[in-house]
Write a structure and sequence with these properties.
23% strand, 8-stranded antiparallel β-sheet, Arylamine N-acetyltransferase fold, 2 domains, Rossmann fold, alpha+beta, 32% helix, 12 helices, globular, 424 residues
Length: 424
């Protein structure tokens, strides 16, 4: 990287060229990058392919045109900047848990001159850890939001798994090997992500950036905080709305002459909302919603409201927000497990799980059944999504109890203009 290119890149992330490499510089660079430069797929959905991993092209795209990119682009560029500052950097491949292929993802192992140990660094993942992680399998490390640990693979002694703990729920981020690779070795898998229909990057607009309140992600027509699991604005309605989101939320000025993929769609996705509950009908609701979504090629979203008053004695101890987070993680796991059992994970558009916590006591009325907070479900989760169909479970109650407390399906049918499908 030429000196002026390094200066241009560092200016893009709000830094100046440091005097020397240090751990503090490494931490500042990772944090500044993930807050300034998004993971995004505009070139892919606009057909500007193949993507280039040449440094001149990456500097032009990210620094001069103030764009983002996918993991291969961002981590190759970041590695080159680190080397020019004086860090020792290895570019390595990682396997995404969803795809499981070599070179699914690019990560960096960095050594700081004069310091012991190595640090895992990543600026191109859609759920980035926010600070370098010391490569030490004996400890859990925090990035201020989640905890992480390196675990050696029991079946493959040369592979390591990066685990994340969030609200006492542990899951796999990705696995990797300590072998160094050249940027040219990533082109084949990069082409797969750019062209295969099963890739998340070919299914519509995708942009993701770090913010203090959580990771903000735009997927198709939805902008949400992936940490809290909540949408931060109504769904995108058309290309002009999409350009405003890119500019105001992600700091990207999209080419006014370029579209966003299929010109016939223009964000006019048919939307289906599946209302989840903690009951035996949950699997049936998921299955029916997936069936309808695939039949109609629709954007599917799952939603649930957690009411503090309904929190049982056997619930996870701790604050109510921690309890909501535990419910969110459990429902994500349940939905993922059911869709995997149906072999539909890669076919469903969207599939996000949105959970809202209601920190107040709700009493039963004829209009609003107790324990489900349907008014919050309707006003805060369903209406902003603007679905054509809502799928929910049916209530099995006595006639008297149904009269006193109402039912979820009857409430939704009265309050919504869209079709309501009840699963028996």
């Amino acid at each position: 990287m030429k000196p002026e290119q390094l200066e241009s890149y560092l200016e893009r992330i709000g830094m100046k060229v440091p005097d020397s490499p240090s751990l503090e510089v490494l931490k500042n660079m990772q944090e500044c990058h993930i807050y300034a430069i998004p993971v995004e797929n505009l070139d892919i959905i606009q057909g500007n392919l193949p993507l280039s991993l040449e440094i001149d092209d990456l500097v032009d795209k990210v620094a001069r045109r103030r764009r983002g990119g996918i993991s291969f682009e961002l981590n190759v560029l970041f590695a080159e900047a680190l080397r020019d500052i004086g860090f020792d950097v290895r570019l390595m491949s990682a396997k995404h848990p969803k795809y499981g292929h070599e070179f699914d993802h690019a990560v960096l192992m960095v050594r700081v001159p004069g310091e012991e140990g190595e640090w895992l660094v990543d600026v191109g993942y859609t759920e980035n850890f926010r600070t370098p992680l010391l490569f030490d399998g004996r400890i859990w490390q925090s990035d201020g939001r989640d905890d992480y640990k390196f675990v050696q693979d029991e079946c493959d002694g040369e592979a390591w798994r990066l685990m994340r703990r969030r609200a006492d729920h542990v899951d796999l981020v990705y696995s990797f090997r300590l072998k160094e690779h050249r940027p040219s070795e990533y082109y084949e898998q990069c082409a797969w992500f750019c062209t295969n229909p099963q890739s998340r990057f070919t299914q519509g607009l995708f942009v993701s950036i770090e913010r203090p309140e959580g990771r903000i992600c735009c997927s198709m027509d939805t902008v949400m905080n992936t940490y809290t699991g909540k949408p931060i604005r109504p769904v995108i309605e058309g290309e002009e709305d999409a350009r405003a989101v890119l500019r105001e939320v992600f700091g990207i000025e999209a080419d006014s002459k370029a579209g966003f993929g299929n010109p016939e769609e223009k964000f006019n996705y048919l939307r289906i909302f599946a209302a989840l509950g903690n009951d035996a009908q949950q699997d049936a609701v998921i299955e029916e919603a997936v069936r309808i979504a695939l039949e109609k090629q629709a954007h599917l979203r799952f939603g649930h409201v957690v009411v503090e008053a309904a929190r049982g004695a056997d619930a996870v101890p701790g604050s109510f927000p921690a309890y909501v987070q535990s419910v969110r993680l459990a429902l994500n796991e349940a939905v993922a497990k059911k869709m995997a059992a149906l072999s539909k994970t890669d076919e469903v558009l969207g599939g996000e799980v949105v959970v809202m916590g209601l920190n107040s006591r709700i009493g039963a009325t004829i209009d609003a059944p107790v324990g489900y907070a349907p008014e919050q479900l309707v006003e805060s989760l369903i209406k902003p999504f603007n679905p054509a169909i809502v799928v929910c479970g049916s209530s099995r109650k006595s006639k008297l109890r149904s009269f006193i407390q109402g039912s979820t399906e009857s409430y939704l049918a009265r309050k919504l203009d869209c079709e309501v499908v009840c699963v028996e």
